[in-house]
Amino acid sequence: xxxxxxxxxxxxxxxxxxxxxxxxxxxxxxxxxxxxxxxxxxxxxxxxxxxxxxxxxxxxxxxxxxxxxxxxxxxxxxxxxxxxxxxxxxxxxxxxxxxxxxxxxxxxxxxxxxxxxxxxxxxxxxxxxxxxxxxxxxxxxxxxxxxxxxxxxxxxxxxxxxxxxxxxxxxxxxxxxxxxxxxxxxxxxxxxxxxxxxxxxxxxxxxxxxxxxxxxxxxxxxxxxxxxxxxxxxxxxxxxxxxxxxxxxxxxxxxxxxxxxxxxxxxxxxxxxxxxxxxxxxxxxxxxxxxxxxxxxxxxxxxxxxxxxxxxxxxxxxxxxxxxxxxxxxxxxxxxxxxxxxxxxxxxxxxxxxxxxxxxxxxxxxxxxxxxxxxxxxxxxxxxxxxxxxxxxxxxxxxxxxxxxxxxxxxxxxxxxxxxxxxxxxxxxxxxxxxxxxxxxxxxxxxxxxxxxxxxxxxxxxxxxxxxxxxxxxxxxxx
Amino acid sequence: xxxxxxxxxxxxxxxxxxxxxxxxxxxxxxxxxxxxxxxxxxxxxxxxxxxxxxxxxxxxxxxxxxxxxxxxxxxxxxxxxxxxxxxxxxxxxxxxxxxxxxxxxxxxxxxxxxxxxxxxxxxxx
Lengths: 479, 125
Prior knowledge:
The structure holds 2 protein chains of 2 kinds.
Chain A: H1 2-9, H2 19-25, E1 32-40, E2 46-58, H3 65-71, E3 80-89, H4 103-121, H5 125-131, H6 151-160, H7 162-165, E4 173-182, E5 189-195, E6 201-205, H8 213-225, E7 232-236, H9 253-280, E8 287-290, E9 293-296, E10 303-305, H10 306-312, E11 321-326, E12 334-344, E13 351-361, H11 368-387, E14 418-423, H12 445-456, H13 469-475
Parallel strand pairs in A: 2-3, 6-7, 13-14
Antiparallel strand pairs in A: 1-2, 4-12, 5-6, 5-11, 8-9, 9-10, 12-13
Helix pairs in contact in A: 3-4, 4-12, 5-6, 8-9, 11-12
Chain B: E1 3-5, E2 19-21, H1 27-37, H2 41-45, E3 46-47, E4 50-51, E5 55-59, E6 62-63, E7 77-82, H3 102-109
Parallel strand pairs in B: 1-7
Antiparallel strand pairs in B: 1-2, 3-4, 5-6, 5-7
């Protein structure tokens, strides 16, 4: 609407919504109903899987049902499968993407059935998942064959973590695990990169930074150029100032815009080698760049550091700008595993999350603390989805809890410190092995909490979200 | 010749075959070959000369950024997958035939505050 009005008025238009309007009108994640049936041999090998998934799209079709159908069994190697997904139009606001759209809902279902199956067969939950884990060469039920992935490595790291083996003392406590998958995204990205006379580099990109990508993209350029990260100065610019760049979303930015930065840096280096050749009056093919210095095989005594060459550019032909427009195909899928401990007050139904650990394959964590931030953020959102959050509609389809007082987000009091383990199984589709990290962390937490509650509640299993006090008391027959 | 992995919704056209071999050095040529061998295939995959909005093609398990123009080698495997927008809404999926039990889905999506589902005839169920 803002775009249409801006076009009509020929002026900038800013749309400001109240908090209530944001909650009423910007789209919830789709509510869902999922039926899962799994079959396994007595020694724990999955042989068949079936799922029916219905997503409430809202007033118009187009929920994330496709992603849900892709993700539901994506962590496993299952030779026979059928997945039916339905995009159901209902009289509610149109659903919208949240984080890893579609995947958390179906993981909540599938990972509980996996847990049940492991329990019935008397197999450790992580061992069961390892026995059936998807790996390179596994064909997903919807068709594609996996390349190099880190599902096994993530599960192994979870199993080796001290949390999984720590004593869990106290009544009404339980530990649960779950694993999740997200395909990550590619898309178009553009980067230009220019040398400054002082030897620093200005990098211009179009990816809005919502989690540290500005630094991660600049670091990838710095790696190619042999510079310190601080010497590459990133700027995120508007759509008039850089070539087309797709949205920041889909866990695509560190991957795709990172590749654009790498290729722009390589383009710059190629031009710098040409310049050095001109300065030295040697054939360009004799110039190479290593350890931050340009050399020529034509005269081993000649060398210039990056900074020295940068200072010479203005009077030897002008500054140099590298550029790249990419649409890289080799995005790498990501997996994450969660271990969570809970304690339930049987009188009030309140669940306290005692401890949480998340293990995630980042391919290559360019900026590890930013990666950890994404992991912890997704985990917290998953815990909120598990225990607190829901849109409440009345009989006329009107949202009843359109404020953050009534829409129960998790607070710092609800969430323990979250341990993070970054696994690195390089993505062959990226020069440094980068996989997207922003979304997969939200996929397994709700399922892990459900599996933990199953043990804390003496075998009672909750199959609806949120698993708030009212739901727990009802499940215990105390409502 | 390239191999095409046929997704389940399209196997009615191939007589149940899961994989078929057809000629082609681009995805476009592969689709034309599929149409020649299994009439009706192109209409299910394409809108005119473009892939339908809800369809993506993967060549050797990598989603092909060039779509119909993506080169295909004789050893390639071509797969057609549901388009998904990571971090954004998916494209409009193909309209599926209704399940045998419409009531089960109406029950499933009807919750507090939702009277049910509005069907294409304007009836509230």
